[in-house]
Amino acid sequence: MERVTIGDNNESAGQEVLAWLEDDRVDFVKADVFQSDETAALIQNYDIVIDGTPISINQESTKCIAQAGVHGVNLNGTGPEFAFHNEFLKSGKTYVPGFGMTPGITNVMARYAYDRLESIDSIRISHGAFRPFAFSPAITETTRIEYEPNLKSRIVFEDGEFKQVEPFARPLNVTLPEPFGTHTQYIIPHAETQTIPKSFKEKGVRLVEVRGTWPPENMQLLRALYDWGFLDNKTVNVDGVEVGVMDAIASYLLQSEQGTTTQLYGYALHVEVSGTENGQPI
């Protein structure tokens, strides 16, 4: 590895990461994914681009990578990236969306079971993200969006069709590795629900569900925000200024000790696959 360049529209944040790494091979450039021509020109001579932008701007970030004609990996979302399939095919480059912990490693775990079973009935993927609510702007946004009312992408795959579900749907107690313990988890919108039914189709998968949880105090806050209608992010007037109520809450959390700290920090994955092996249910 000869060079790693950090690109961000927030120069102070980028310089902070640069100082933390303390490596002569690492540098920084200011980049704005909404300026696709300029950003594509910045990255076109690199071997690979790793995209860690918030899910809400994956359309723009993927466009820059496709336009530059370089290999890419996205560490969070899976969705708008598929629209650029033909562009990557044309340039002879590979782009892997959603390759973080989940989606990503959970797909690998599910594939491990797939390769050993004759048929598959159900795949239940769960994770415990024990991190602060406002670990970063992107994480704050992800946490809010996953429980947004009427979100079309919060689905399960069941008996050959995708079914949209409400926030906090299908509660299930999931035991994670210690020290994380057992927690009630709910359906969340995740790429595995959309991709696994297609890639595992040959073995007859009937049910795919993805659940997640955060620290109990984070879940308590999310439930209250949902029950009070705050997750709709309706605009309110504050001293003559129009602001989204969740935008205000997110800003507070990003600047507060409660929003940026947690007692237990870590990440746990749990994948449960049922099917048949040697003719027997397992």
CATH architecture identity of the largest domain: 2-Layer Sandwich
Order of helices and strands, N to C? EHEHEHEHEHEHEEEEHEHEEHHEE
Shape: globular
Low-confidence regions: none
CA-based gyration radius: 20 Å
Our count of helices gives 10
> How many domain modules?
2
Q: What structural class do helix, strand and pairing data support?
A: alpha/beta
- Please state the average pLDDT score: 93
* CATH uppermost class of the largest domain: Alpha Beta
- What is the CATH homology-level superfamily of the largest domain? Dihydrodipicolinate Reductase, domain 2
Largest sheet: 8 strands, mixed
CATH topology of the largest domain: Dihydrodipicolinate Reductase, domain 2
Helicity level: 25-40%
How much strand? 25-35%
Could you give the count of β-strands? Answer: 15
Straight-line distance between termini: 44 Å
For the structure shown, list the relevant keywords.
single chain, 282 residues, alpha/beta, Rossmann fold, Dihydrodipicolinate Reductase, domain 2, 2 domains, eight-stranded mixed β-sheet, three-stranded parallel β-sheet, 15 strands, 33% helix, globular
